[in-house]
Backbone:
């Protein structure tokens, strides 16, 4: 089964798992580094980690146009359902067998207020096990936490973690996160969108690869990584 990961800049992720197309935190409008517009984005499933505007983003418009199912925590799934969209609610620690694999919501240390001030519940990370057994951990916006060790115990093929600092882990804590998660590959995200979260991903890659066995893949917005090799 072919699994492809795409970074659209900031925390906007694309995953193609077999014939299923997923978008995570689809923030295109107002995202200065987005390589495509919201009108050009396609998805069967839209996964939302938390309620902040740079993560809820264009989810409503893209879901409506594509008839996509929105998957998020109970509070955010309900917020989308009130807008007439199809949604599936899960919560922290809970997993569900979707057509694209087994998706579990994990802990994330962050906030989750929705763009209209509504209550967005607790922020989450996403742990996806594809039907052929690949494990992809998308941390969402989070600070470092020790239970990343437990997530790492599952055997992570790809970890997608923030390194931007200020709102999330910065480079130092993200390096500690890699030591807890022990993934085969890591893609850094949530940096170089705005001056406030400017980082050098190549310097971070050198540090991580000197101190761990993980391979860091630095993508440019719009670039993809094939997970079959
Ligand atoms: Ni956030
Ligand atoms: Mn964010």
Residues:
């Amino acid at each position: 089964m072919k699994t492809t990961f795409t970074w659209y800049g900031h925390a906007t992720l694309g995953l193609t798992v077999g014939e299923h197309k997923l978008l995570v935190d689809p923030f295109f409008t107002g995202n200065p580094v987005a390589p495509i517009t919201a009108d050009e984005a396609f998805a069967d499933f839209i996964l939302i980690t938390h309620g902040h505007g740079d993560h809820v983003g264009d989810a409503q418009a893209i879901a409506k146009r594509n008839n996509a199912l929105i998957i998020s925590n109970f509070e955010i799934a309900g917020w989308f359902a009130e807008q007439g969209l199809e949604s599936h609610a899960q919560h922290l620690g809970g997993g569900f067998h979707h057509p694209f694999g087994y998706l579990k919501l994990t802990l994330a240390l962050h906030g989750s207020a929705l763009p209209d001030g509504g209550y967005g519940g607790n922020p989450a990370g996403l742990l996806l096990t594809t039907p052929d057994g690949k494990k992809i951990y998308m941390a969402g916006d989070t600070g470092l936490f020790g239970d990343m060790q437990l997530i790492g115990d599952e055997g992570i093929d790809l970890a997608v973690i923030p390194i931007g600092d200020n709102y999330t882990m910065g480079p130092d804590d993200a390096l500690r996160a890699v030591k807890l998660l022990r993934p085969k590959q890591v893609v850094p995200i949530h940096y170089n969108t705005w001056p406030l979260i400017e980082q050098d991903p190549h310097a971070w890659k050198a540090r991580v690869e000197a101190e761990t066995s993980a391979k860091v893949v630095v993508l440019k917005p719009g670039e993809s990584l094939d997970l079959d090799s």
In short: Residues 171-181 form the longest helix (11 residues). Residues 48 and 65 are 17 Å apart (CA to CA). The radius of gyration is 16 Å.
